[in-house]
Amino acid sequence: MAAQQVEGEAAAETAPKRARQPSPAKRKVLNGLAPVVVGAVVLVVWQLVGASVSPMAMSYPTAVLEEAGVLISDGSLAEGFLSSIQSFVPAYVLAVVVGVPVGLVLGRYRLMEAGFGPYVTAGYATPLVALIPLFIVWFGTGLVVKIAVVFTLTIFPIIINTWRGVQAVPGTLIEVGSSFGASQSEIMRKIIIPGTLPHIMTGLRLAVGRAVIGIVIAEFFTAVSGLGGIIINAGNSFDTARMFVPVIVVLLLGVVLTWLVGLAERKLAPWHAAMSGRR
What we know:
This protein is an all-alpha fold and 279 residues long. Helix content is 84%, strand content 0%.
């Protein structure tokens, strides 16, 4: 009886705590509203602070919105966006096509890891922006050098995440595949690649951010064009409202591309979201 009484008291204590947990639908609504509320607060503070200082030092949302209308109406924003995307798409695709296989090989074969791994790690840690003058000598100042800069900044996160993902695959799964007579290619296709997929997608998400940064950096240091060109030209004339427009476009581009990679991950590796409780 005493034990039942204690259990009843414990259940009574935990019941209110469970009642305070929001339902999944309510949690989804709250998660959707949270960034909206935070964004609204940031905009209000930005408006109040920006409107109280010199426009040469800081702009504010309504002025940025007005300038965005000007850039949209004269076609400058669309032209700059298309120019920036021209270097992003081939560089990012090439980084994925090269980086994922290289990461798989480094993770799968210890001799390759011993030979090339330190150089990949060093390449990731190197401030590659310092190589841009050399890239200009090699490739000129046109589209090719922008692709080279974005590719160089993008490939290392993909390689390293894929490499570490292969090493995270349980060895027992590979041993089971080998014991059932699976060939090396079958082990790679049916065990290692599916097990590495969440790490690959993480590398792709990180690479999106590096690629967007690479676009702007390349446009700063090479032929001044695209969204980076608008930023640097507006900065040179102290037109802060105009400068913020492409900055916000680049920010939104990074958010949308990261969301698309996350969407692809949920399609390609739905079990990962379920296992991590993010469904």
